[in-house]
């Protein structure tokens, strides 16, 4: 394991929604260039944890440091939030593209507004990342003219335009038709190969097995198992994880048929 300062460190973090305890003392470390897959049943707290990592949700207890920024500090301020958002990109399940803007306009908005780049600089950057995700020819299209897989690849390119050091993915393929999943995972696989630090909430076990360095299995708001992808997915220690993986495998086989 890498002994340098982790890109993300969380210790005993808690998150409540009114009386519902969603995260119950979660701890972990994610190092630079690592790909970490977070898996677990619906409602176990996976997406909430991810949203805490870029402060879309605030934590109610514990200690959380992301890219050197202490998100749990009582005096965390707007300047630090802005800094965090430029360094940590997020790709959502539902794409979140602006429907009234073209693909190119979706991509240049944040670099212009947040990074202060000129429209020309932002457009050059957008062209570079659209080419990277194989959609350079779609720059003038509107989101409604794209397939789900294309929308998600545009969403990834949009995040990359901010030159993030860490990328968070919240079930990026779950809203896609099965035949479109591969094109999105291929882009993510390429990012991983280039050394992007990535945290991925996913049900795609093949991706986790082949690409992730570390897998975190969450259950009922706690980390139930954690380790290398091979350890966790090939040799699960708990009945709960064995049941979860066998259920996913059954669903995958049913969809394949």
UniProtKB/TrEMBL annotation:
GO molecular function: ABC-type amino acid transporter activity; ATP binding; ATP hydrolysis activity
CDD domains: ABC_HisP_GlnQ
Keyword Lipid metabolism assigned: no
Sorted UniProt keywords: ATP-binding, Nucleotide-binding, Phosphonate transport, Transport
GO terms for biological process, alphabetical: organic phosphonate transport
SMART domains, per the entry: AAA
Pfam families: ABC_tran
ABC transporter domain residues: 8-245
Family according to the record: Belongs to the ABC transporter superfamily.
Protein's UniProt name: Polar amino acid ABC transporter ATP-binding protein
């Amino acid at each position: 394991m890498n002994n340098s300062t982790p890109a993300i460190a969380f210790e005993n973090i808690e998150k409540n929604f009114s009386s519902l305890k969603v995260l119950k003392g979660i701890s972990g470390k994610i190092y630079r260039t690592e790909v970490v897959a977070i898996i677990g049943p619906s409602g176990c707290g996976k997406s909430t944890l991810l949203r805490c990592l870029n402060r879309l949700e605030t934590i109610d207890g514990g200690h959380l440091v992301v890219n050197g920024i202490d998100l749990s500090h009582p005096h965390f301020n707007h300047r630090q939030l802005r800094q965090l958002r430029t360094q940590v990109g997020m790709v959502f399940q539902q794409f979140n593209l602006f429907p009234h803007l073209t693909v190119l306009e979706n991509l240049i908005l944040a670099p212009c507004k947040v990074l202060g780049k000129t429209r020309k600089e932002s457009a050059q950057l957008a062209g570079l990342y659209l080419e990277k995700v194989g959609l350079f020819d779609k720059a003038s299209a509107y989101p409604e003219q794209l397939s789900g897989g294309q929308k998600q690849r545009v969403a990834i390119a949009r995040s990359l335009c901010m030159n993030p050091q860490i990328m968070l993915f919240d079930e990026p393929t779950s809203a896609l038709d099965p035949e479109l999943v591969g094109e999105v995972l291929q882009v993510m696989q390429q990012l991983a190969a280039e050394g992007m630090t990535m945290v991925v909430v996913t049900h795609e076990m093949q991706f986790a097995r082949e690409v992730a360095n570390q897998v975190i299995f969450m259950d009922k708001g706690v980390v139930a198992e954690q380790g290398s992808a091979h350890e966790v997915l090939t040799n699960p220690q708990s009945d709960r994880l064995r049941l979860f993986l066998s259920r996913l495998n059954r669903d995958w086989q049913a969809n394949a048929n």
